[in-house]
Amino acid sequence: MNWLERDYKHLWHPFTQADEWERQDNLVIERAEGSWLVDTEGRRYLDGTASLWCSALGHRHPALDAALRGQLDRVAHSTMLGLTHPGAIDLAERLCALSRLDRCFFSDSGSTAVEVALKMAFQAKQQAGEAARTRFAALAEAYHGDTVGSVSVGGIDLFHGIYKPLLFEAVRLPSPERAGENEAACLGAARRLFAEHGHTLCALVAEPLVQGAAGMRMHSPAFLRELCALARAHGAYVILDEVATGFGRTGTMFACEQAGIVPDFLCLAKGLTGGYLPLAATLTTEAVYQHFRGPYTAYRTFFHGHTYTGNPLACAVALATLDELPGAIRQLPAAALREALASIRHPAVQEVRALGMMGAVVLRPQEPSARVGHRAALAARRHGAIVRNLGDAIVVMPPLTISGDEIGQLARAVEGGIGEVLG
Ligand SMILES: *Cc1c(COP(=O)(O)O)cnc(C)c1O
Questions:
Q1: Any idea what DSSP says for residue 69?
Q2: Which of 150, 243, 277 to probe ligand 1 with, by most ligand atoms within 8 A of CB?
Q3: How far does residue 150's CA lie from ligand 1's centre (Å)?
Q4: 249 lines ligand 1 (CB under 6 A)
Q5: Domain 3-60+331-422's class?
Q6: Which H/E stretch holds residue 258?
Q7: Is any atom of ligand 1 closer than 6 Å to the C-beta of 110?
Q8: Which of 102, 130, 148, 159 could be a cystine partner for 125, CB 3.0 to 4.6 Å?
Q9: CATH topology of domain 74-327
Q10: Spatial CA neighbour of 236 closest among 268, 286, 195, 289
Q11: What are the extents of the domains in the chain?
Q12: Mean pLDDT by 10 residues, the chain (423 residues)
């Protein structure tokens, strides 16, 4: 049996319909370098999704490879439960300084970073004597991960609808589709919802500036600022999920900087290790941390932790990533990406969305069963790029370090894929 036949026998792929998977032309990726993935046939493809939004600095980055190899010669894993290690200490310091927050709690994925923030915010309010604050406000079309808590604050019906009986109910705030559009109406509705439910809320949770999984829905920094101010005026914490937007994606280290906001909780993952290893962080304030202190038998401890929390290999590669990111952000080819996407010419293209190195080519709404976005994304492979669709949006999120030439090739491949499917 070849690789794919063996795959079809035992693997179960995430967010993938097996009926389609087993029929389509699939690639087996064997190697990578910079912005390129190479399959077992030796064919090269631009990594147009940065391996699902996390390969910030490209593949096989020499400094990241070296950091990982160096740590392997010391220790691969040691627990954070009752022990500590230099990598976690260094990384916590660096992340606190970058975010202007005080405390760093490590976990393994974006979902757990959000899950941790939700539980911390809830428990902090409970232990601060605000027992009535048991609920969360979240944006329409939000995506915060796939664990049950993060799904509860998520708002994408296609992904989340079936789990409704398992979930806690969030106060759902309308979200703008485009920056500057409809924002006043969304804020008006948010004001009314906060007036009604504000006293029951422990936190607002939001993806700042770009709602990635919703298909790159964007709002302005002013909208975000107003929303956060509203939450705080009603005594709720602000949780910002920068799992997608963090680490330079939107043009600044964190998107919330563009709105001048320091949240009470900041959730980080994807780009944190440059796409090398699973590591996530939930950062918060000293004031929140203080709500968890006391004698053991006051039972104020945060009883939560994952086996691989703060893994030393992951911390080592994250530290190297933080060393490299400022240079990459200074030279971000954001204008080149925006222009290249805008140059895609096809009557089926409804609009192009881009902020920093987050982009999407949105096709005119199509019959879902036609699977046009999916087919166009697959067809782009025949033109030398790997991209993915979210419904009718083809997402373009390459490594931050992609070159101008490569951006041009990526845009032509997306255009070629659309042309192949839509004529
Ligand atoms: C990807 C993503 C998550 C979930 O991260 P995982 O590592 O896949 O669990 C959460 N929030 C946002 C905004 C994301 O883009």
A1: H
A2: 243
A3: 9
A4: no
A5: alpha beta
A6: none
A7: yes
A8: 130
A9: Aspartate Aminotransferase; domain 2 (3.40.640)
A10: 195
A11: 3-60+331-422, 74-327
A12: 96 96 96 98 98 98 98 98 98 98 98 98 98 98 97 92 94 94 96 98 98 96 98 98 98 98 98 98 98 97 97 98 98 98 96 97 94 97 98 97 98 98 92
